[in-house]
Amino acid sequence: MGKSINQQIVISGVGGQGVLFITRLLAEAAIMNGCQVFTSETHGMAQRGGTVLSHLKVGEFSSPLIRPFQADGLIALKPENILQHDSFLKKGAWIFVNSGKKPDIGFDAHAIDADALSLKAGNPKAVNLVLLGFALKREKVRQGKNKGLFCTFEDIKRVLAVQHKGNKEMLDASVRALETGYKVSVK
Amino acid sequence: MGRKKLMLGNEAIAQGLLENGCAIATSYPGTPASEILASLARIKEMNSLPVHSQWAVNEKVAFEIAYAGCMAGLRTAVSMKQVGLNVASDPLMSAAYMGAKGGFIVISADDPGPHSSQTEQDSRLMAMMAKIPVLDPDSPAQAKEMISIAYELSETFEIPVMLRPTTRVCHSRQDIRAKNFGSFERKADFKKDPARWAATPKFRFKLHTELEKKLEKIAAFKKTTPVKLNKKAVSRKAVIVSGVAAAHTREIMNALGLWDKIPVFQVIQPYPLHRNFISSVCIDYDEVLVIEETVPVIEMQIADRTRVRGKLNGFVSRVGEILPEAIEQMLCDFAGLKADKIAVQSQPGRRPTLCAGCPHRASFFAIKKAAPKGIYTSDIGCYTLGLNLGAVDTVLCMGAAISQAEGFYHAFKNESKRPDIVATIGDSTFFHAGIPALIDTVVQKVHFTLVILDNRTTAMTGNQPTPASGFGASGEPLEPVDIEALVKGCGVKFCKTGDPCEIKEFISLVKEAVLYARDKGPAVVIARHPCLIGRKSKDKQAKKIFVEITDACEGCEYCIRHFECPAIIFDNNKKRADVDPLLCSGCGVCVHVCPKKAIVMK
């Protein structure tokens, strides 16, 4: 891991799903790895149940926004987010989506039913972390080819430990949710 | 030097203020500026800094508090969103003449897009109108750096200085190194000088003359001179950028291979634009492209119109946020490159809606039941989203729900059929600008009903306290103000409080108020139920009522159209409504909404 990483990621969902939280975790992981980072977020009225969109740029960038056809990947907390934001994606980009079925789309797309899994795990608010765990699995599978996330499962676990410092209950629940997604195999 | 921290632009601004010894910071919440004061209050509390930070009742009051602090020689700052500056424009214009003693920074956050605002107005133009310098940061890191320059400018020339970040600066996060906090040793010291601090018109002329002299010097101030970013580039063309457009342009010029070819100048201080820069640009370059948001403030100051491409000749859009893809297109056109036409076609996103279980939804449902053919004036806040429910007809600006209700009353009062008029306003907005308007409706005996949506917080902007909360920006205990007493103090004779989530009783209460208003004059209902997001203590929540939908559902979609709760979804396969257990908050209000009684308690 080093400063040569350049990755642009779009993260989206609807207000209340925790898009900003996982954007933050990834950005903190970037700093931990010695990378420069930019995020751009949706706040205010749009956060009330509307579509929430984050841009995350890790590496040598000066603009906080991703241009069309430049993103390496998309993390979508609702299936509908794919058609809303796929114009940001470059050819061959990866998509990790919270959905019961794999989307039929011309990208490297993978689905996980994070709604059902988090409900089953008794932590319905942790859909975002289940999906993030699933996306991190991919990094392990095809590391080095910019085919997955720039950081690892362990990186995010370390960031969570800092974020939830002093709240062991919260930390354990978050790590469990992350693991729930991480354990699901990526086909 | 600490390690790098991930800082939101607004946090970086707060950090910058504290690194430079800001002793008084005030604000009224408004997107995208809200986190400036919230972060400052948090950081000062964590580090026990002797700083006064507060949410004021509105931006005008916030401005005047911070301004008086600088008159006493302290470094101070006031932050707000751009439309908040309209509210504070009265003291702004006058403070420019009287000037500052200690450093005084006015932070006005603009919202090109607009993402979360009524207008796309450019605060830099307000700075120009007031005749004060304005700095335009391109990133969180630069916004933080500019605080020190702003204080230096302010104290050198004894003038208020504006910092104008935009949404993309306020709501970006970047890795930034924090420095040590500044000194807070300075003692308050007010030197009486009535010819300045209480100037009559004769002295105002003198102050205006002095102000012009200050601006002359500021237009040559070294630290804010426009910077040529790419030293090597030589051309007869040049690009001038400021704010976040500078950040986009750097990245895109590199991507297009133009970085070493066309000179790029970043304007740090759009007003007053440096005199030498204006003349040299017109001599050194045949063609100049100016990219800035949202009004052509820099462009207007460059005198030679034949050389400039920008907003004035339509080369750059005069409306909306300038997205990086638009800049890419402009730069290609300007440099004579062929651009890949970027035709982006995406599905629109979901529109914002009130949260599942939001008490405002219940209030709006009751209002529509009580005055089905009424005119519904409303205001600025989460409850603006009542327009999705057909319960909001007008939204103008803070406090206007009440004065507009009065206007409609006067417009219709001679008609044979007068509509019921029901105004809605949030608790924080009522304090901010609703009170003078309410007094006016009492004086004029306006027949209307006001529903104060009292969710005990400033919800839309991130749950800041209101004057009724009894605590401040750092959670410190403060004196709470009683809304009922305030309403009665304004002279309102009918003032009753109810809980909108007790929907049946609440509908009766609003009906009673509407009937009273028809005959007698202003009636006020205080709809009190705490915001779901901002609740201080979980145990205060009422018992959750979980619901299900029975076979009595005919799929008429009445609940979807008139209640629009995100937790009630329409199942297109089954052609009936369904409840999303992940979203349902258990408020139980919907049980009383279905005309077929198909929504029942579990």
How is the CATH topology of the largest domain in chain B named? Rossmann fold
In DSSP terms (H or I, runs of 4 or more residues), the helix count of chain A works out at 6
Strand order of the largest sheet of chain B: 3-2-4-5-7-6
Q: Strands of the biggest beta sheet of chain A: in what spatial order?
A: 2-3-1-4-5-6
Mean pLDDT of chain B: 94
Helix content of chain B: 25-40%
What's the count of strands of chain B?
A: 23
- How many strand segments of chain A? 6
How many independent structural domains of chain A?
1
Specify the helix fraction band of chain A.
25-40%
What proportion strand of chain B?
Answer: 15-25%
Query: Which class of chain A in CATH terms?
Result: Alpha Beta
Strand content of chain A is 15-25%
Superfamily at the CATH H level of chain A? Pyruvate-ferredoxin oxidoreductase, PFOR, domain III
The CATH superfamily of the largest domain in chain B is identified as Thiamin diphosphate (ThDP)-binding fold, Pyr/PP domains
Briefly note the CATH topology name of chain A: Pyruvate-ferredoxin Oxidoreductase, domain 3
Count of domain modules of chain B: 4
- Low-confidence blocks of residues of chain B: none
Principal-axes shape call of chain B? globular
List keywords for this structure.
heterodimer; A: 187 residues; alpha/beta; Pyruvate-ferredoxin Oxidoreductase, domain 3; 6-stranded mixed sheet; globular; B: 602 residues; Rossmann fold; 4 domains; 6-stranded parallel sheet; 23 strands
